[in-house]
């Protein structure tokens, strides 16, 4: 005859284990929300002083302007239960680091409480910064500072080494401001004709103000005003000043229209901070700790 009473302890134990497993299942937390990209150095731990933050941000900005590649620094307390490599990849993709179709971005990520860091490298720079080189930068140049609680010094040294490797990589040149400057100069060509129509003094004042508005240079504005004054005098000598008022009005209208459109373009240049449209890292880089 069976004795069901003896089986009760094992049944209760089994049910207890199942209950513990069910309670433990939701413990795996959702991935942490990523910080907003609003600067070259995103420091959510207040590790950098204002002066240190500004100096490094200016250095990274100047590097992009000269080389084209983007290097960003992110310092967070923790990546939560997410592995730092996975967290770094999410940041890289969401921030769209590097230029579009070039993917020449680098992310230096530090999780202070976790005592972990990672260098995430875009596809376009995997030849310049191999996984081995990224690991050496971490182990030989960054973590020695971190072990002495000099986080800023370690990050600065790491950025310096990353820049040196990227600088030696042949990359497409950065998008310069030459096209916009050429557009601004081309706008002055019709104004040269417009200057001939106006009286000399009015021509000098108008062209000088317009040039200062476009280029922001007083010296250049004075030079343009002098040229406009001379052109107007030459125009009067050769009879260009005898044109009708209707022609003057039409040119004046074109000038004002161009002025308004230029102001609109300058205002539109103050958009938000962001990456370069890249975002493909492919998992290249290295992680480490201290």
UniProtKB/TrEMBL annotation:
Residues in the signal sequence: 1-29
Region Disordered, residue ranges: 257-290
Limits of the TPM domain: 41-164
UniProt cross-references to Pfam families, sorted A to Z: TPM_phosphatase
Keywords: Membrane, Signal, Transmembrane, Transmembrane helix
Residue ranges of the TM segments: 183-202, 209-234
PANTHER family per record: UPF0603 PROTEIN YGCG
Protein's name in the database: Dehydrogenase
Organism: Oceanisphaera avium
